[in-house]
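wait is this the right file?? whatever heres the structure
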């Protein structure tokens, strides 16, 4: 099948949406499809495929950012030109693209949703896109419920819940008897919980903590607010370099708050609908996971089954769970083995891509 994926992502960049679209296009291609991804050109410092640790088995068309905000128009025009050469399926998570091609094309279409509409205009684009009867994929059950409540038309259309995914990992590090390491991989955006990790580190000075993510300025500000000396700060790392840190980590932390904001103005709250990619990356490495006890997290993680769950702001509770993992060998082995098994059976990118194309 010829698939045209039209994105609003900047490639390469440190945005989670760019990781998602690159990984999905790679997985779709691994499933035997001819895939072309349209995105906005980012930094020229890194080669895009290597930056995301994917194979060059799909075509990547990068449109310049341009002046005066012309990148969206350029991407749409490029997509129209490529569509005229023949495609079987249009795939997107960008409302403007789904709206445009719902009017210009009779191709089959898949629309992915990773958050609530960020504006009235985007909500309008989504409503109009549904007239083309696309397949609609939501990254959490919570998000699907939100859309069904607000867009009743969806009840008559094809909908599916597919959580995010991660790459399969071959090498696994065994949990040691000493030198325990805890880790966090993710952004410093409000509600992601890096501040919680720092507070936990202060409570457990004998344990090494690894924090991957954040800009130089964000790290500087965080360091100024803590007395902890047991934290290694890596800053943002490309996908291909994260594995070297993950191999050092024994306990992975996911301290999301109920409200998570992905924009600088703290208006776009995705806390109740988010599906953090790092959940699945943690699982793929067979790590012990301690996460916030939130409904959306519990769609994937189950307490004392494949993870331990703690109230997001209960710092003493986080400390107690870490100590429980360290002192209970049977518990930590069960948690890590079940998380890895669960991941391999349900959450690889290739499994996700295969499921996305069901009924198409």
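ok assuming it is, sequence goes like this
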């Amino acid at each position: 099948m010829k698939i045209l994926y039209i994105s609003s992502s900047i490639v390469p960049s440190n945005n989670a949406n760019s990781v998602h679209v690159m990984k999905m296009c790679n997985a779709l291609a691994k499933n035997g499809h001819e895939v072309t991804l349209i995105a906005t050109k980012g930094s020229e410092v890194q080669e895009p495929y290597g930056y995301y640790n994917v194979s060059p088995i799909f075509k990547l068309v990068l449109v310049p950012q341009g002046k005066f905000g012309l990148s969206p128009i350029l991407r749409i025009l490029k997509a129209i030109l490529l569509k005229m050469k023949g495609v079987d399926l249009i795939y997107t998570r960008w409302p403007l693209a789904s709206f445009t091609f719902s009017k210009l094309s009779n191709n089959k279409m898949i629309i992915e949703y990773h958050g609530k509409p960020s504006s009235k205009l985007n909500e309008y684009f989504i409503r109009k896109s549904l007239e083309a009867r696309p397949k609609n994929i939501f990254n959490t059950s919570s998000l699907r419920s939100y859309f069904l409540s607000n867009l009743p038309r969806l009840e008559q259309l094809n909908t599916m819940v597919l959580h995010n995914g991660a790459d399969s990992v071959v090498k696994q590090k065994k949990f040691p008897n000493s030198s325990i390491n805890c880790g966090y991989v993710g952004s410093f955006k409000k509600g992601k919980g890096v501040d919680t990790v720092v507070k936990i580190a202060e409570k457990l000075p004998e344990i090494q903590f690894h924090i991957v993510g954040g800009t130089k300025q964000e790290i500087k500000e965080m360091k100024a607010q803590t007395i902890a000396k047991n934290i290694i700060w890596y800053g943002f790392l490309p996908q291909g370099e994260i594995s070297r840190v993950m191999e050092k980590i024994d306990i992975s932390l996911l301290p999301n708050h109920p409200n998570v904001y992905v924009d600088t103005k703290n208006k776009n709250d995705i806390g109740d609908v988010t599906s953090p990619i790092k959940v699945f990356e943690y699982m793929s490495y067979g790590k012990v996971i301690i996460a916030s006890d939130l409904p959306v997290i519990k769609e994937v993680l189950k307490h004392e089954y494949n993870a331990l769950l703690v109230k997001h702001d209960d710092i003493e509770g986080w400390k107690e769970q870490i100590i429980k993992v360290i002192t209970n060998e049977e518990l930590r082995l069960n948690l890590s083995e079940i998380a890895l098994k669960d991941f391999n059976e349900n959450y690889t990118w290739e499994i996700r891509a295969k499921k996305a194309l069901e009924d198409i």
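The mean pLDDT is 94. so i think its the right one actually
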